[in-house]
Amino acid sequence: MTRVLSRSDIDNLAQRYRANLINSLSGFKPAVLLGTTDGTTHNLAVISSVVHIGANPPLLGMIMRPHTVQRDSLGNIKKQGFYTLNHVHTSWVDKAHQTSARYEVDESEFDAVGLTVQMSEHFPAPYVKESSIKMGLKVAQHFTLLNDTEMVIGEIHELHIPNDIIAEDGYADIEGAGSACISGLDSYHSTSRLAQYTYAKPNVELKQK
Amino acid sequence: MTRVLSRSDIDNLAQRYRANLINSLSGFKPAVLLGTTDGTTHNLAVISSVVHIGANPPLLGMIMRPHTVQRDSLGNIKKQGFYTLNHVHTSWVDKAHQTSARYEVDESEFDAVGLTVQMSEHFPAPYVKESSIKMGLKVAQHFTLLNDTEMVIGEIHELHIPNDIIAEDGYADIEGAGSACISGLDSYHSTSRLAQYTYAKPNVELKQK
After folding, report:
1. Which candidate from A1, A179, A199 shows the least CB-CB separation from B163?
2. Residues B121, A47: Cα–Cα separation, whole Å
3. CA–CA dist B30, A181 (Å, integer)
4. Is A202 an interface residue toward B (CB < 8 Å)?
5. Of A19, A26, A82, B192, which one is least surrounded by beta carbons within 10 A?
6. Could you list the mean pLDDT of each consecutive 10-residue stretch along chain A, which spans 209 residues?
C-alpha cells in the first residue's frame, strides 16, 4: 500500500520520526570521513552529504550542520581552510559510525574509534590511513543555506587512489575498492554492480561497457 | 599500488578521463529521475546529485548543469517552480540511463524510454509511475555556484511511499524498496545492508538496531 503524505502531514510527524523519514528520501549517500585539525587535535566525523560539483576544476560540496556534533570539524575548516575526505570501507563501518558520538573537543576521534592518522608531506589536514580513496581539499566557497545549514565547497588538491581500480577511461571502481554507502542516518550498505552503460543516444539501443 | 595525484597532475589529465575519475570520487550517489513539464511535454532526466538539506522543513538540494542535456529540465523548473524526484528501481536502471540521451525539446523522455507519467491531483509536475518512492517539490532556493553550475533546493510538498518499508522510528528501507545507486557517470548498483546502528555515544560499545 502506498502512503501519500502532504506537506502538512509531514509537518505533523513527531520530530525524530520525521528526521529518520526525510533523511531516507534523498536515496543512497556516500559514506565518507571528514578529517580536520586544530593543529593539536585531529578530528574525524562521518558525513553522508558529499556531492559532486565539477571536474574541471575538481570540486566537491558538502552540507554541514553548525549546531551539532559537526561543530568542531566546521570550526577547524573555517580556521585552517583545509580538510580531507576519506572513503569508508565496508569492513569498518562500525568505526565510521562511532565517530558520530559527541567526544570532548580535545579528544581525537581517530584514537577513540581506532583509525590511524596519515599525514602527507604536501597537505596540512589528516587523512585516514585505512581508507583506500582519500582526498585533500582546500575551501573554495562557503555559504549558509536557507535553513541555516552551511555548504562548503572544496577544490581537490591531492588525491590518493589505488592504481588498479582506475579503468582506461578514468572511471574509478569504488565498489572494487570496498567503498560503503549510507541510507537514512544510520544504515550502512555494500553494493553490487548491475550494469555500466556507454553514452546514451536517442533511438539507439543502450550498450553495456 | 596507491597513486598520488597533485592538483596539477589532475589538471593535466585528458578531459574525458578527468571527468570520469572526478565523478567517481564523491562516492556512491542516489539514482533519481527528475520529472518536469512545460505544460505540453513532460521531461525526465536521470540525476545523481540529490543531497539532503534538512528535515524540518523537508528540503532536498540538487546540482544542475545549465549547458548540458539538463537544460530543458532546468528551464521547466525555472518557469514552473515545481518538479518531482523519483527513485530509480534496480530492475529498470537501463531506462533511467536512457533518459540522459539528447532528445528533442518536444520529445518526452517518458515515452522515449518507456516509463509512465503519473499525475497527482494536488501537484502540477509529472511523477514516474514505476518508482516506488516519489516526491513533489517546490523550489525554495536557487543560485549559481562558483563553477557556473546551479544549485536548486526544493521543499517536499507531497510524498508517495510504500507503507511497509517505513520502520517504527520513521526510517524508510529504500533497499527493501529496490532503490538503485550510481558510481561515476554511468555505473548502476544495488545494495546489501551491512549494519544499522543505534545512536553512538563516547566510550559505549556500538549496538546494532
Report:
1. A1
2. 37
3. 10
4. yes
5. B192
6. 96 98 98 97 98 98 93 96 98 98 96 98 97 98 97 98 98 98 98 97 95
Band (B99; pLDDT cuts 50, 70, 90): very high
In chain B, what are the domain boundaries? Answer: 7-189
**Distance of alpha carbon A56 from alpha carbon B125, whole angstroms:** 33
- Degrees to nearest 5, angle at CA B150 with B147 and B151: 120
CATH class of B7-189: mainly beta
C-alpha cell at A142: 562557503
Closest Cα in chain B to A197: B186
Type of residue found at B94 = D
pLDDT at B100: 97
CB B137 within 8 A of CB B178: no
* pTM assigned to the model: 0.97
Query: Rounded to whole angstroms, how far apart are CA atoms A115 and A96?
Result: 9
Q: In the 3-class helix/strand/coil scheme, how is A150-170 assigned residue by residue?
A: EEEEEEEEEEEEEHHHECCCC
Burial A68-86 (b: 16+ CB within 10 A, else e): ebbebbbebbeebebbbbb
CA A39 to chain B, closest CA, distance in angstroms equals 22
d(CA A88, CA A99): 12
